[in-house]
From TrEMBL:
The gene is hisS. This is Histidine--tRNA ligase. The lineage of its organism: Bacteria, Pseudomonadati, Pseudomonadota, Alphaproteobacteria, Hyphomicrobiales. Keywords: Aminoacyl-tRNA synthetase, ATP-binding, Cytoplasm, Ligase, Nucleotide-binding, Protein biosynthesis. InterPro entries: aa-tRNA-synth_II, aa-tRNA-synth_II/BPL/LPL, Anticodon-bd, Anticodon-bd_dom_sf, His-tRNA-ligase, HisRS-like_core, HisRS/HisZ, HisRS_anticodon. Belongs to the class-II aminoacyl-tRNA synthetase family.
């Protein structure tokens, strides 16, 4: 065997498909955004709770017909006692388990929020990741629609707290019972019509994309798109089609109550639909009483969400401003979160009814929207002040570290250079790459006089261009002052304040 063959293979560094690394800017933007969301939830009297990343798979309720392994939609493993555990795919199922397990200790109604990563074992694609963050809020143990109305109001307040102006968002509200009743009226009730019913709901959900003509085609014989691909329709008769599409365009209605009245006129003869219409009417009145009109919270019969999950009101936050997609086209940004009433989820564990309602924000998608609006990451973090190292003996190092700690104690980001201090040019290059605003220098002469050199690197660049070595540094002497050690912190603060004013003027 040759020496080349004996040489161990170098491990290849590779990111798993569907996952991403996040840099400092993204992490800080995320922290900024979630802090604003959290403040709204706290203001409404909600408290945080945290559940683990793993749950027993049966608690999540996702299985394949093959009982030996869980659904491909979740990442799973077997514990040492042969029980299947899975990474959570949302934050609601773990909450349901938590409530059921601690039901006797929890004060109902239980009002809680939580943020965390969830995992989907699905094929990744553009903008579609296997790990992403959600931020949820839920009320468990409140059966009345006032809890759903409050969720919608908190959703709206969250959008505005993030800097999204009125007119740039709307909280769309519908009801599972209304949707079920509508479909029963046009002949799509019963188990035998389950597939057609699902296709009809998908057609209604395409209203924003295709308009009423496109929805008519999908509810009827089918629709051919621009590429020539044909989507088979639901096959409803013309009367049924017109009954459904007649409630989609709510622009002709003056307010939410007119939309509700239209729903009642068309489907009120159906008991299930009438119950949902009454709930929508109550929500419309409650939010209007609190000052939330249809420009913020809107009853919208085209709002369709996962209907196997929800049992009553459903809602969705939609951003209405346009962005440029990967094809260069202007498109409405769309949904950034949603939720609704899910009275059956906790009940799976309890054997008794436990009402619940909540909503979930897709954090990554909302972050993208806020960046498009220029509402996130605008508060630039100033890079650390760099304390350079001129002498490597322990006594000198101790003095440099003392300067660094004095700056930190004053609330100023600072670091002492930790690389090869003997090449001073490397320290300057490091300061440039880091974007350091100020450098602190003390050689033997300065130390003997109790002085320290403070270099304004931002001003220095502007006046003299790039400084690449020690000689150029000492010859230029631009934007550099020598001060007593005792004045170090105060003078650095003055320079940083002046730089902040310059950025504000330029911004």
């Amino acid at each position: 065997m040759s020496e080349k063959q004996k040489k161990p293979q170098k491990l290849k560094a590779r990111l798993p498909r569907g996952f991403v690394d996040r840099d400092a800017a993204d992490i800080r933007a995320l922290t900024e955004m979630t802090a604003k969301i959290r403040a709204v939830y706290e203001h409404y009297g909600f408290d945080p709770v945290e559940t683990p990343l793993f749950e027993y798979t049966d608690a999540l309720g996702k299985f394949l017909p093959d009982s030996d392994r869980p659904n491909e939609g979740v990442f799973s493993l077997q514990d040492d006692d042969d029980q299947w555990m899975s990474l959570r795919y949302d934050l609601t199922a773990p909450l349901a388990r938590h409530v059921a397990e601690n039901f006797n200790e929890i004060q109902l109604p239980y009002r809680t929020y939580r943020a965390g990563y969830v995992f989907r074992n699905e094929k990744p694609g553009p903008g579609r990741f296997r790990q992403f963050m959600q931020f949820d809020a839920d009320t468990v143990g409140a059966a009345g629609v006032q809890a759903d109305a409050e969720m919608c109001m908190m959703f709206a307040d969250t959008m505005e707290a993030l800097g999204i102006a009125r007119g740039d968002y709307v909280i769309r509200v519908n009801n599972r019972k209304v949707l079920d009743g509508m479909l029963e009226v046009v002949g799509l009730g019963g188990e035998e019509n389950a597939a057609r019913r699902l296709n009809a709901l998908r057609a209604l959900d395409k209203f924003d994309k295709f308009g009423i003509p496109g929805v008519r085609e999908l509810l009827g014989a089918g629709r051919k798109d621009e590429s020539g691909d044909f989507t088979k329709g639901v096959g409803l008769d013309p009367a049924g089609i017109e009954l459904l599409v007649g409630v989609l365009d709510t622009s002709s209605f003056g307010d939410n109550l007119e939309t509700v009245a239209s729903l009642d006129n068309r489907f009120g003869q159906n008991e299930r639909a009438r119950e949902g219409v009454e709930e929508l009417e109550q929500i419309a009145k409650l939010v209007a009483s609190a000052g939330y009109e249809a420009d913020r919270i809107k009853v919208d019969p085209s709002c369709v969400r996962g209907l196997e999950y929800y049992t009553g009101p459903v809602f969705e936050a939609e951003l209405q401003f346009a962005v440029t997609n990967e094809k260069g086209e202007k498109v409405v940004f769309g949904s950034v979160g949603g939720g609704g009433r899910y009275d059956g989820l906790v009940s799976r564990f309890m054997g008794q009814p436990v009402p619940a309602t909540g909503f979930s924000i897709g954090v990554s998608r909302l972050m993208t929207a806020l960046k498009n609006l220029g509402k996130l990451g605008q508060d630039d973090i100033v890079a650390p002040v760099l304390v350079t190292v001129m002498d490597g003996d322990i006594e000198s190092m101790g003095r440099y570290q003392r300067f660094t700690q004095a700056l930190r104690a004053a609330g100023i980001r600072a670091e002492m250079y930790q690389g090869n201090w003997k090449k001073f040019g490397n320290q300057l290059k490091y300061a440039d790459r880091r974007g350091a605003p100020v450098a602190i220098i003390q050689g033997g002469d300065e130390r003997a006089g109790g002085l320290v050199q403070i270099k304004d690197l931002i001003e220095g660049k502007r006046l003299s261009g790039e400084i690449e070595d020690n000689i150029a540094w000492r010859e230029a002497r631009v934007a550099q002052v020598s001060v007593p050690e005792a004045e170090l912190v105060a003078r650095v603060r003055e320079i940083l304040d002046a730089q902040a004013e310059d950025r504000a003027r330029q911004g």
